[in-house]
Design goal:
InterPro entries: Cyt_P450, Cyt_P450_E_grp-I, Cyt_P450_sf, Cytochrome_P450_monoxygenase. By secondary structure, this protein is α+β, with helices and mostly antiparallel strands. Helices cover about 50% and strands about 10% of the residues. It contains 17 helices and 13 strands. Strands 1-2-3-9-6-4 form a 6-stranded mixed β-sheet. The chain has a 3-stranded antiparallel β-sheet with strand order 5-13-10. It has a two-stranded antiparallel sheet with strand order 7-8. Helix 8 runs antiparallel to helix 13, helix 9 runs antiparallel to helix 11 and helix 14 packs antiparallel against helix 15. Bound molecules: protoporphyrin IX containing FE. Protoporphyrin IX containing FE binds next to helix 5, helix 13 and helix 17.
């Protein structure tokens, strides 16, 4: 697909009609896919009555919004506001954002993350042992009982990420409790706000009370950790200590609320996405025996009966291609909205100040002119010798606000897979198609039940 047809006369965006609204409420993702198909990569305005976002899916347009004129497309507005009760204000209206960003970038940079190798490896090994016990795997009778992949991956991912980011400032039971509360906050209790962002917060919606209770529970868990870290001198390399020690360019530190928001914001960004990705991949493995065979073969060859560690990661090449393809198809960060600061024109289309721009990796990853045969699951598209538009693959966003945790993810997720798959061959119990449903991130609509069959050697 090309939009390079010379300058176009300035015009309003094509409007896609309100007939999508009933479907949007019944099956939001399917309606969204239809809207994406109808727009066909062109900028369109989606008429949802009181809410008329611009839909921008073409990589050239995305490059402009996410990179070339990024200051005009702010990470704030009605789609971010409801979440701010959990994570603090969006980056573009948060005075403490420069401090938070500096901490995230330092903490999550390659050298710093590789310093977590021993902690990460040990925590994942323990979490997988625990999962195996819960699944009754490896004992007499072989494959044990089916377990819910989402719940299990929540436990593994929370333990790994929070142990690595917060050290021993939080107990294992505290981590599990935080996991449950955050999952409730970011799923069922948030869905109506996600689907009707135009309803003011002063108007109650189903799920609000539960969401507020979750926010309170998160506060009750996180504030004591922040206060204790401050009292103890905050000299650790964990995120709480780093937030407390950090200073802006004028030498100012941040208060407890900003530390709490930074820590919780990082938890949401890092855990919710990773859990979703690691829940969907069982369905992809089940549906594609050839991919599964290659993945198992790589893990058997590279790890075998060793204890998986960071030293194995450079050789887990296909595992990483597989994870990229999972994230192309199940683009868990399915929408990353922006608010337009000043009137603008993109490729001849007038964009009005104050409106919302819906950027959807999920739709961009399905554009036929951008991705050959987008419906085919093929990890090889990410092989090193294949090229694509820089803004065609947006699983981790693009431009200066792209995901700060990408390096972390590609250490953690392959290590979790290597630890699990070097011991077990998970078998999917429900082999029907696993459809995603929309929450803050995409989640499996039905439980994905897996059984852990021990590897036969
Ligand atoms: C499957 C895994 C993940 C996916 C798909 C993902 C996706 C994304 C996306 C799309 C954004 C940009 C949002 C926007 O443009 O508005 C983002 C931002 C961010 N992510 Fe991730 N992420 C993942 C894992 C992680 C992990 C493991 C961490 C931390 C350990 C993390 C930390 C962050 C942070 C701090 C930001 C904000 C960056 C900034 O604005 O400077 N993410 N992520």
């Amino acid at each position: 697909m090309s939009i390079d047809a010379g300058p176009r006369p300035v015009h309003d965006a094509k409007t896609l009609s309100l007939r999508h609204l009933p479907r949007l409420l019944r099956d939001p993702l399917r309606a969204f896919e239809e809207v994406g198909r109808e727009a066909g990569g062109e900028i369109a305005r989606v008429n949802l009555g009181p809410f008329r976002p611009y839909l921008i899916t073409h990589p050239d347009h995305l490059q402009y919004v996410l990179r070339d004129n990024v200051a005009n497309y702010r990470r704030e507005g009605m789609m971010w506001k409801p979440l701010s009760r959990l994570t603090g204000e969006g980056s573009d209206v948060d005075p403490s954002w420069p401090v938070k960003r500096k901490v995230f970038q330092t903490l999550l940079s390659g050298p710093s993350v590789t310093g977590f190798a021993d902690e990460m490896t040990a925590t994942i090994a323990d979490a997988v042992d625990d999962l195996a016990r819960r699944a009754g795997a490896g004992g007499p009778g072989g494959a044990g009982r089916p377990v819910d992949a989402f719940a299990e991956m929540t436990r593994v991912v929370y333990r790994t990420i929070i142990r690595v980011l917060v050290g021993d400032r939080i107990s294992l039971s505290g981590i599990d409790e935080l996991g449950q509360v955050m999952v409730t906050a970011t799923t069922s209790s948030f869905r109506s706000r996600m689907l009707m962002p135009f309803v003011p917060l002063s108007v109650p919606l189903p799920g609000d009370r539960m969401f507020n209770r979750c926010v309170q529970a998160v506060d009750d868990l996180v504030y004591p950790i922040v206060r204790k870290a401050r009292r103890d001198g905050a000299d650790g390399r964990d995120v709480v200590s780093m937030m407390i020690r950090a200073r802006d360019d004028a030498g100012r530190g941040v208060d407890d609320k900003a530390v709490r928001d930074g820590v919780v914001g990082l938890f949401v960004a890092s855990t919710d996405t990773t859990v979703s990705a690691l829940s969907f991949l069982w369905a992809a493995l089940d549906a594609h025996p050839d991919v599964r065979a290659r993945l198992y073969d790589e893990i058997d060859t590279v790890v075998g009966t060793d204890k998986p560690g960071f030293e194995h990661l450079p050789k887990l090449v296909y595992t990483k291609l597989f994870l990229h393809e999972v994230l192309r198809v199940y683009s868990v960060a399915w929408i990353t909205p922006r608010t337009v600061a000043a009137d603008d024109v993109i490729d001849g289309v007038r964009i009005r100040a104050g409106s919302t721009v819906a950027i959807s990796p999920y739709l961009t990853h399905r554009l036929p002119g951008v991705w050959p045969e987008p419906e085919v699951f093929d990890p090889e598209r990410f092989a090193a010798d294949r090229t694509r538009h820089r803004f065609a693959y947006l699983a981790f966003g693009g431009g200066p606000n792209q995901c700060a945790g990408r390096v972390f993810f590609f250490l953690e997720a392959p290590l979790i897979l290597a630890t699990l798959l070097s011991r077990f061959r998970p078998v999917l119990e429900n082999t029907a198609e696993v459809r995603p449903r929309v929450d803050i991130t995409l989640k499996p609509r039905e439980p994905v039940m897996i059984r852990l069959r021990p590897v036969e050697r």
